[in-house]
From TrEMBL:
GO biological process terms on file: isocitrate metabolic process; tricarboxylic acid cycle
Catalytic class of the enzyme: oxidoreductase
Keywords: Oxidoreductase
Protein name: Isocitrate dehydrogenase (NAD+)
PROSITE patterns associated with the record: IDH_IMDH
Organism in which the protein naturally occurs: Methylomarinovum caldicuralii
Oxidoreductase among keywords: yes
GO molecular function, one term: isocitrate dehydrogenase (NAD+) activity
Entry EC no(s): 1.1.1.41
Similarity comment: Belongs to the isocitrate and isopropylmalate dehydrogenases family.
PANTHER family documented for this protein: DECARBOXYLATING DEHYDROGENASES-ISOCITRATE, ISOPROPYLMALATE, TARTRATE, ISOCITRATE DEHYDROGENASE [NAD] SUBUNIT ALPHA, MITOCHONDRIAL
Length: 343
């Protein structure tokens, strides 16, 4: 049976983005996946060409296709334009950020048996963008942010985490919070989380205070299965989880909404190595794996993942971040994965 063609909005990104995008596209196309790419710009590349970091034609492509694969985008620190990632998540209500952290045999990681998923609320909290400066006598004397936490937002992200656990055969969900101090915002999240957990008696539920959770993840990550938490805490803990398996170059993320989904490498645009051809393409390729799963192409997704794992395990054709001293380029690693796919 031949699968229907899927049209996907492809955003090559900034910095190393175009290089790892070329590698990911090569691997996905070599797999035979029925994907048609609809290429559009965002971030710094779009700003330079169109005068805006998020052109309307990019938004329209995503609205039309409802699926996007996105490489890293540059966000200025401090001033400049607001994060395009945050804007896309809010524009398309991509409320669930799903970040698996799984060990790869052959990497230099502190643990070799990590298999956990962080499910992060993606549109509210301190990333809602409700902030301002407080001025007096012409000077900025303070800055204030409001963390927006709604009952609807809490309920749908915790429910998503439990449904995800059930659908993927996972057994436990940890609700992570700071309700001992942030009694309103984190308190509401914990209260609603416990209510939602009662709907899933087949899934074990526990709650953890975020700082203790971070320590416990570093000491014994095997005690975690699915973590669900609010926006800022999820941003931090998911990066910590990436560090447990060898770094951000190995981890992908999905941004899931009711109507649309965006898949991405979660690391930065790394302008310091842009153009050198040494960026690790694994994260964006694994984002493509998550995208194919979302599109119902599970068999192809598994083939690509197995090929990536085989190449990393062998260690002959991996980028320098995975093997110090390696002279393997981004495209050579992609070629090795393609060869493994076709073997």
């Amino acid at each position: 049976m031949v699968s229907a063609m899927h049209t996907v909005t492809l955003i090559p990104g900034d910095g190393i983005g175009p290089e790892i995008t070329a590698a990911a596209v090569k691997v996905i196309e070599a797999s035979g996946a029925p994907i048609q790419w609809d290429r559009h710009l965002a971030g710094m590349a779009a700003l330079e060409k169109f005068g805006t970091p998020l052109p309307e034609e990019t938004l329209e492509s995503f609205r039309r296709n409802k699926v996007a694969l996105k490489a890293p985008l540059t966000t200025p620190v401090g001033g400049g334009y607001r994060s395009v990632n945050v804007t896309l998540r809010q524009e398309f209500d991509l409320f669930a950020n799903v970040r698996p952290a799984m060990s790869f045999e052959g990497t230099r990681a502190r643990f070799d048996d990590v298999n956990l998923v962080t499910v992060r609320e993606n549109t509210e909290g301190l990333y809602a963008g409700i902030e301002h400066f407080i001025k007096a006598e012409g000077k900025t004397i303070a800055a204030e942010s409001i963390a927006l936490v709604t009952r609807t937002g809490c309920e749908r992200i915790v429910d998503y985490a439990f449904r995800y656990a059930r659908q993927t055969g996972r057994k436990k969900v940890a609700i992570v919070h700071k309700a001992n101090i942030l009694k309103c915002t984190s308190g509401l999240f914990l209260e609603i989380g416990r209510e939602v957990a009662k709907r899933y008696p087949d899934i074990e539920c526990e709650d953890r205070i975020v700082d203790a959770c971070a320590m416990q993840m570093v000491m014994d990550p095997g005690q975690f299965d699915v973590i669900v938490t609010t926006n800022l805490f999820g941003d931090i803990l998911s990066d910590l989880a990436s560090g447990l398996v060898g770094g951000l170059g190995l981890t992908a993320g999905a941004n899931i909404g009711r109507e649309a989904a965006m898949f991405e490498a979660v690391h930065g645009s790394a302008p310091d190595i842009a153009g050198k051809g040494i960026a690790n393409p694994t994260a964006l390729i694994m984002a493509g794996v998550m995208m194919l799963e979302h599109l119902g192409e599970q068999a192809t997704a598994r083939r690509i993942e197995q090929a990536v794992r085989a190449v990393i395990k062998e260690g002959k054709h991996v980028t320098p971040d995975l093997k110090p001293g390696s002279t393997c380029t981004t495209q050579e690693m992609a070629d090795a994965i393609v060869a493994e796919l076709q073997s």
